[in-house]
Amino acid sequence: MSVPFYVSPEQVMKDKADFARKGIARGRAVVVVACTDGIVFASENASRALHKISEIYDRVAFAAVGKYNEFENLRVAGVRYADLRGYSYDRDDVTARGLANAYAQTLGTIFTTESKPYEVELVVAEVGATPEQDQVYRLTYDGSVADEHGYVAMGGSAEQITAHLAEHWQPGMDLPAALRLAVQALGSDAAAAAAGSGPRAISADQLEVAVLERARTRRTFRRLGAPALADLLGTGGDGDADGGAGEGAAAPGPDTPPEPPA
């Protein structure tokens, strides 16, 4: 008679957690930064169709890293939850806290009962009337929920990016400053740290950026395309992320004669 194979519950949970963390670390990071004008979401994503940042409801947005098909299922479920609750009760009853609790129950159940956990990490954010009323929740693969303040980074190289945000973020930043900080933080990933050459430059067409704008009424979510990003970053489409002139371009001096008319 053969002895049944036995694995302790602690080992099973550890193996699942290691598996999920490895899958999440392979994805590109997402950065969320709070500012006076709202909440900024930024990610390095060249795809114009497969979004990592999406709108959920009027003042609630969603960002994710990991396997696209898994967090897309969660996004669709969140939209249905918000629509049903807003229709059944009131639009103000749809909150980031309620959505985060629903996601936490789903992820926790999948992690403990299914053989394969979801390889995802989520951020659910709600913009308030004032910066003090903003809500940002980070959810991990096992259903754990953390209430974040000011900024959050998740995905690959999250430790390096979080260290950059902790060093440079400060309360009272406006939208352009928060966006520049988010892009610089994305460029300070493990590859840039290994090269030792400072944050790498990321062009506007390689970014996926959205913002929950505090001043907008009803639907506050707005995506920022490459032209708007270039204006906010101060690059004008050709400069660097710090708003300076492009490499090799000379700034006109006060004694530079005007060009003759064509």
Characterization of this structure:
- It contains 7 helices and 10 strands.
- The chain starts with 8 loop residues before the first helix and ends in a 29-residue tail after the last helix.
- Residues 237-262 have low confidence and may be disordered.
- The longest helix has 21 residues, at 68-88.
- The strands form 2 sheets. A 5-stranded antiparallel beta sheet has the order 8-1-2-9-10.
- The protein is an alpha+beta fold and 262 residues long.
- The protein is globular and about 70 Å long.
Strand fraction band?
A: 15-25%
Widest beta sheet: strand line-up:
8-1-2-9-10
Shape annotation: globular
Poorly predicted runs are 237-262
What would you call the quaternary organization?
single chain
Largest sheet: 5 strands, antiparallel
Query: What percentage of residues falls in helices of 4 or more residues?
Result: 25-40%
Q: What is the succession of H and E elements? A: HEEEEHHEEEEHHHEEH
Global mean pLDDT: 86
How many runs of DSSP E, i.e. beta strands? 10
Distance linking N and C termini: 96 Å
Structural class: alpha+beta
Compose a concise summary of this entry.
The protein is of the alpha+beta class and 262 residues long. Helices cover 36% and strands 21% of the residues.
Can you lay out the helices and strands and say which pair or pack?
Blueprint: H1 9-25, E1 30-35, E2 38-44, E3 53-55, E4 60-66, H2 68-88, H3 96-113, E5 120-126, E6 135-139, E7 145-148, E8 151-154, H4 158-168, H5 175-187, H6 190-195, E9 207-213, E10 221-224, H7 226-233
Antiparallel strand pairs: 1-2, 1-8, 2-9, 3-4, 4-5, 5-6, 6-7, 9-10
